[in-house]
Amino acid sequence: MDMDAAVSTLTALSIFASTVEHAAFRSVHGYRVIGRKDGKWVRWERWVERQFVLSLSVPPCREVAVPAASPRILMAGWRGRPVFREGQTVGTWRCIVAFDSVAAVKPSSPPPPVLSPLVNPQLECLPNLYKDLQKVFQFQKVEKVPRRVLRDAKEQPIHSGEQEKTSDEADSSGSDSDGDTQSDKELAPSVQKQPRANRKHIDSITLVEIAQYFHLPIREASKTLKIGVSILKRKCRKYGIPRWPHRKIKSLDSLIQDLEYVLEDDPEEDGQQELLQMEEEKQAAAIKALTKRKKMLESEKETLQQKPALDLMTETKQFRDDVFKRRYRAKSAAIDMEMEMETE
């Protein structure tokens, strides 16, 4: 394709819940795109509509194709820039989250539990939705106090003055309690130990159950399976899985998403017909090559989920490196362009 790699920035996100069908959701994403074509800087807006099945139960969340025959939230003959608000209804869809940086629309409250990765970790297997939600709400994981800090605190030396004071306090407390050790137990902080997993429950976990959570980080998967991380690692080694495949699957999802970005991008719909106009034969050949690449990546992802011990194909690694280099060059060039515009 004549168009170099472009950099896209989220400018709008609206999520709609179906008022008819349970667990059916649709999202409308707006992006500002900056790219370079034939040595010239160009920018445009790209709008995408997607449909998902989201649930807090065991069946994983998944993205489904938007039916071509059903009414869409983004109308084909839409004029101008669409702006959505929370509570707005479009057909059988009701807006539950609305964000638009251009129109100054912000979400009025935190997202529903089904759209929060802290409550619904299955969202991480939907990179098209999860990444944009992350940008809007800035989800932060709860960080625990490192064990090293606790160990250093325990090993911290006590000065002589403090030691004498501590011994005096100990003596006085001992005289008040008259040798009763129960008071020391009451003063000691209660430590809640995490209950250990039942041996029968651990033995009952099969490879098929574990494979359902390959798309999650290993800690999230262990919490969902209600076992410890060490136990999950031992189970994986028992089934011949030397390394948790979350990173490889996430890498393939990212590459598939990049290809979908190119395939879904319609210059005529964005009103930039002259911007990305090319010969029909070249366009058909490019689309055919991208479609073939997408099918190969999806097939490799399915194989990896069935055989997680396999490594990524050499061709896929080379393609991933090329995508990273293109993205880095485009991002650097976009920053330079923004700086030039600001100076002008």
From TrEMBL:
Domain spans labelled RWP-RK: 187-272
GO molecular function annotations of the record: DNA binding; DNA-binding transcription factor activity
Entries under InterPro entries matching the protein: RKD-like (IPR044607), RWP-RK_dom (IPR003035)
Residue spans crossing the bilayer: none
Keywords: Coiled coil, DNA-binding, Nucleus, Transcription, Transcription regulation
Coiled coil feature spans: 280-307
Function: Putative transcription factor.
Location of the region described as Disordered in the Swiss-Prot/TrEMBL record: 150-199
The protein, known as: RWP-RK domain-containing protein
Compositionally biased region (Basic and acidic residues): 150-168
PROSITE patterns the UniProt entry points to: RWP_RK
